[in-house]
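Let us practice reading a record.
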Amino acid sequence: MKIDLTETNSSKINASLVQARRDIGTPAIGMVLTLVIVTDEENAYDALKSANDASREHPSRIVVVIKRVSRSPRSRRDARLDAEVRVGTDSGTGETVVLRLHGELVDHAQSVVLPLLLPDAPVVVWWPEGAPQDLAGDPLGSLGQRRITDTYSAEDPIEALGSRATAYAPGDTDLSWTRITPWRSMLAAALDQQVHSVSSATVEGEDDNPSCELLAMWLADRLQVPVKRTSSAGPGLTAVRLETKDGEIVLDRADGALATLCMPGQPDRAVALKRRDTSELLAEELRRLDPDNTYEASLKFGVARLAPTSEPSSPKPAPAKAEAPAKAEAPAAKPTPAKPAKKAAAK
């Protein structure tokens, strides 16, 4: 069921939610959290689809906040709220409220969202892209126990990792970190079977891929060994190599779906490491509402502390020094002219 509301307010939206539940015969609320999605019109459809798919595992009230910035100065002063209420099959297993904020209301989105939060239920705020620098200090971000971003969508993902580390607050997380959960699990299981410790590591993946950087920082922080980043054509993260005294442990995924784990003294084995879609990543993040201390430690390790991202190029031969010109011979001293003899005194 869909209900369109034009020039409305939070009270009318809540009343529409109650009425819609009664009309479809489900007056009881069985949702476990409120998911607030802050996005724009361009990305709203994909974000909402991923949230609806994730709601099959986590029934939730989804509140989509779309800020419609007006162009003309006059329309910027006219505050207006339009809403769309979806209940039943149109909203996964929970409820969906799509809010479109116009004019001055854009700067006060938290006052509109606050009355729509489920009582006594956790709140998670998700920015599919365009996240603020300080998540916890953002008016909408301050409403949530967890705050989810995706640095992969940033214009400069590596710079965005630095911003996330600088402004980190307990409860922040990133889908670029969630993407490497299977890799971390597989590598941890492989290291449990080794006697010798790791002396160095290499992470191979696409340039400017924040997941590769986060995995490299996680290895460097946990193993306390040099970790080097190398580039590949992708897709995404392609290989991790760990050096030990017994040999090299290699987890190689060339096609983005199936990986090969090679360990010293053991036969190679195939492991499933497919690239997951956004709904699976979001569902994983919604399983935990406590701060992720491992993510914090890895993020704050810093990209700058990793080894160079590529093999150092061979040093260019120093330009041959021009031979110093031979010192010119000192010019022969000019003969000193003889002093004129004193004229003889006139007789």
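A brief commentary: The two ends are 144 Å apart (CA to CA).
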